[in-house]
Specification:
Layout: E1 2-11, H1 17-34, E2 37-42, E3 46-54, H2 55-66, E4 71-82, E5 93-96, H3 99-108, H4 121-134
Parallel strand pairs: 2-5
Antiparallel strand pairs: 1-3, 1-4, 2-3
The chain binds flavin mononucleotide (FMN).
Length: 138
């Protein structure tokens, strides 16, 4: 039973680039063992993350992430059962926002700013998909 979950959160003001790299490193260490794949988009203020994998593993990972004190205002945007993963290749891909990605943001929202709190979950899913196709993922 595969599921896809998308949430948004706000980084703690004190989050440094090094701490962000730590989050990615831990994700890339834990997720393969849990069969989790996905992508983490950030402009350093806001996180938009998609998790895909088994229902139990995605639930456990999301609950662990939601308790993490490095971010707050964690809001569940989207949850669905799926037939196949969109991002099977990424234990946790990273998309950072730069000028190149602004056009993709504008396509899906009123302003060229990452604000998943202001759009529907479906729009956030579409945004992530398009970013994965057009943006530099690392
Ligand atoms: C925005 C954000 C995204 C995260 N994504 C993941 C993730 O995909 N997988 C994961 O295992 N931990 C993720 N974490 C870290 C978890 O909250 C938690 O610190 C970590 O899973 C603990 O792992 P450990 O017990 O191996 O140290 C994330 C944390 C934040 C703040």
């Amino acid at each position: 039973m595969l599921v896809r979950l998308v949430y948004a959160s706000r980084a703690k003001a004190t989050l440094t680039p090094a701490q962000f790299e730590d989050i990615l490193a831990v994700s890339r260490r834990n997720n393969p063992a849990n069969g989790i794949t996905g992508v983490l988009c950030t402009n350093t203020f806001i996180f938009l993350q998609m998790l895909e994998g088994g229902r139990k593993e995605v639930s456990e990972t999301y609950n662990r992430i939601a308790r993490d004190p490095r971010h707050h205002d964690v809001q569940l945007l989207h949850f669905e059962e799926i037939m196949a993963r969109k991002f099977a290749d990424w234990s946790m891909g990273k998309v950072s926002f730069d000028r190149l990605n602004m056009a993709v943001l504008l396509k899906h929202s009123a302003k060229a700013v990452l604000d998943p709190y202001a759009v529907s979950g479906a729009v956030s899913v579409a945004l992530i998909e398009e970013l994965m196709q057009t943006a530099a993922v690392s």
